[in-house]
Amino acid sequence: MPGGQLAVTKNGRLVYSRAFGYADTMAKIPATRRNLFRIASSSKPVTGTAIQKLVAGGRLHLDDKVVDILAGIAPVPGATRHADWDKITVRHLMMHSAGFANSNGDPQYEYLRTAARACAVPVPADPASIIRYMLDKPLDYQPGTAISYSNFGFNLLGRIIEAVTGMPYERYVRDSIFAPAGITAAYIGKTRRIERMEGEVVYYVGNDLPDGWSVMGDEDARVSMAYGADYHLPTTDAHGGWVTTATDLVRYLTSLDPTTSRPHILPADQIDTMVVVPAISGENDPQRYQGLAFRCEANGQVWTHAGILAGASSLIWRDGRTGVTFTWIFNSSPITTIGEFAQDTRVRMDAALAAIEATNGWPDIDLFGAVSVKAGQADKPGIDARPNPAEGHVTLTFGMEGSAGADLIVADSAGRIVVRRKVGLDTASVVLQTSGWMRGAYSVRIGDRTSAFVVR
């Protein structure tokens, strides 16, 4: 693997966060823990969380019919919606039991050109156009009778979020899921290498994945499988389109975990619903089963998901039995299957975690809010924001070393600066009054150190 990140929490505290290898091998740019990586299908639990947020607010029900919610999406001209679709519910989509088995290939990849032409829209097809193209197709099985992993089902969930909220999928998730968790660096990625975001890594594929024809409309071009020959990242938005960091992924998971003291983004009963054992014959082993958006183990104590795209791979893992949560992400995909690779890394992680327990135990630290140090630079204290979420005020403690004369800058999730002031010569902390501030996440910067806090 060219480069990657690993982040580990214990009982909601970030105890390890590190980057390895290269963000760009040709330029010899080392990976840092601030680099953005594609997380592929580890995006699905994020979408599932957004759905549960709407359920918790009474704006949606898991047994609502999909065709009723998406009544504004019509079949392609000359086609009629197949009657099978009338049976699909939101719950079916969340559990991969809606009737889609990819019998003619994965629609999210196979129909980027075909659906666009049928809908008379530019290639590659947008998510709604793929749905329009699929509406007249029969299901592969009756909803609720089997489980078959479906990217297309999560495309539908993304459009449901848009239909219910009246907001673009990305904006709703950033505002309602990530901001309350204190996450500001998470985005739907772009496809081409030239479109990479600031701080985003370069993605690599092995020799077993040769270049292919571009899906971007320039069909006479051959490009890398990681950059347009296999998928269009914005079309994968709700099932595989997010880019972020390993640290922010565990920040999301610990904010979802009702046993931690982190800001919680869902009520505990909504989490219970997500990890319930399915009532489907052959799929109801409580030790390993498909929950709503998450894969689950140990009767719902373990939540996990893996992700793979050409050039990217990820794994998220929360174990309620041990209080350990970890995520890893890489800027390449394994030469084995993602299942084999995830299992191999899990075995290695289990051995490492067991060694920690057997020796000195877990460090009594919390690195959330701390910042990585550049090579050759002396260690400096991070910025500690307390209370977090703010309770009418927030105290930023940063120490005096390297702070005197620097600008203290606080910005909202849209990047708008709400506070800018010089740090005094004898100043080690600052109290900000947050009453009247807009709800959401705020980033803090003093020189080259950063942190974040939440206002509710």
From TrEMBL:
Domain of life: Bacteria
Gene3D superfamilies reported in the protein's UniProt record: DD-peptidase/beta-lactamase superfamily (3.40.710.10)
InterPro entries: AmpC-like, Beta-lactam-related, Beta-lactam/transpept-like
Residue stretches making up the Beta-lactamase-related domain: 1-334
Name of the protein in its database record: Beta-lactamase-related domain-containing protein
Species assigned in the record: Candidatus Kapaibacterium thiocyanatum
